[in-house]
Write a structure and sequence with these properties.
Order of helices and strands: EEEEHE
Low-confidence stretches: 1-17
Structural class: mainly beta
Largest sheet: 5 strands, antiparallel
Helix content: under 10%
Strand content: over 45%
Number of strands: 5
Number of helices: 1
């Protein structure tokens, strides 16, 4: 697993802190493909999650395929 320390540094009262985001992944089945979005049903949580995919790469995915997606979660 890779850990990235982003160049955004916030100064707290206790000193310098660095925001660390971890690359996460999920494995699941492609439920549907629309415009620039791919919908994947996570095999662990059974929750459907959508991801943005460039339209040129979207052509290679089809409903029913099993895929693994690596992503960085933004925000809280």
């Amino acid at each position: 697993m890779a850990v990235f320390c982003l160049p955004q540094i916030s100064f707290a009262q206790s000193g310098k802190t660095c925001s660390v985001q971890r690359v996460q992944y999920m494995t699941g089945e492609v439920v549907r493909v629309e415009e620039s979005w791919i919908y994947i049903k996570d095999e662990h949580s059974m929750e459907t999650v959508r991801f943005f995919v460039h339209k040129d790469r979207l052509k290679q995915y089809h409903a029913g395929e099993r895929v693994r997606v690596y992503y960085q979660q933004t925000g809280g």
